[in-house]
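Good morning C.,

I know you're traveling, so I'll keep this short. The sequence:
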Amino acid sequence: MKILMIGAKNSGKSKIAYSIFKNSDCCGIICLPVFKNGRKIGSDAIRMDNKSKINFSRTKKYANFDGIEVGKYVISKEGINFCNEAIWEGIKKRKLIVIDEFGILEKNKKGLFRSIKKAIESENDLFLIMRKSLEKDFLKIFPYEFERIYVKRTI
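The C-alpha cells, ready to paste straight into the viewer:
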C-alpha cells in the first residue's frame, strides 16, 4: 500500500508520523524540527530503522555544512545522502518505508527524488509525507493511485 500524508506547513505531519512509526519495524526517515530560543532553525533527519540522526536542514545563519539553499534554509548534502541510504536500505530489506518529505528539491527532481521514485515503483509499502501545496505537482510526476491522509490541524 502507498499512503500519502498531506497537510499545510507546520500542521504537525512529521510529529504525527514519528509518533506512529517510532516503535515500528520500518525503514526510511522522518525529519523533526530543531529549535533554538523557541524559534525553528531547521530539522534533523532520523533513520527509522536504527534511530541515528543527522543535521538535515538549517537556516542560513546556522548552516555550518555544505548544502543546497532552498528558501531560508540550507539542505545538507550529507543529510540528503543519509536519507537516500535509509530509503534504499528499506527497499532492499523489503520493509515499510517512511519518507519525510517530498519537497521543493524533489519537485525539481533533486534531493531525494530518485529514492522516492524507486520506493514508489517498488513492492514495498510506503508512507510519504508532503505539503498540500505540492500535492498536484507530485501527482503529475507520479500518476499512481495513492491512499491519502489529510492533516487539518496546525501545531
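Safe travels,
E.
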